[in-house]
Amino acid sequence: MSDHITIRKAAGKWVVRAGGAVIGESDQALELAEGSYAPVIYFPRGDIGMAFLEKTSKTTTCPHKGEATHYTVTSTAEELTNAAWSYETPKDNVAEIKDHIAFYTDRVTVEQL
Q1: Phi/psi class of residue 44: alpha, beta or left (left: φ > 0; alpha: ψ in -120 to 50)?
Q2: For 23-44, how does the pLDDT look when each residue is reduced to its tens digit (9 = 90+)?
Q3: Residues in domain DUF427 (predicted)?
Q4: pTM of the complete model
Q5: Residue 41, beta-bridge partner list
Q6: SS3 helix, strand, coil % of the chain, rounded to 5?
């Protein structure tokens, strides 16, 4: 693992909401802490209602984690473009986040229950 990235099981149960609708809930989420950034909760893909997400053409690259694929999140209330991301083939040092999705918390609500 990169010397400035730590990944651990997130304590408790976590939920993600978009437009007031619950689109995911998990007690198997991971917490990724990177340097001085706020920790990010990564939800197992199987705990997310993938019908609410649509892959977009946007990708970004992190030198420590690899290339991220982005998703638009759609609820009955709104469409949130590129509001989620996933490292489909993360670098070996962060392999635990494979098959997990994270969300921009300025667009959706991510909270511990």
Answers
A1: beta
A2: 999 999 999 999 899 999 999 9
A3: 15-105
A4: 0.94
A5: 31
A6: 10, 55, 35
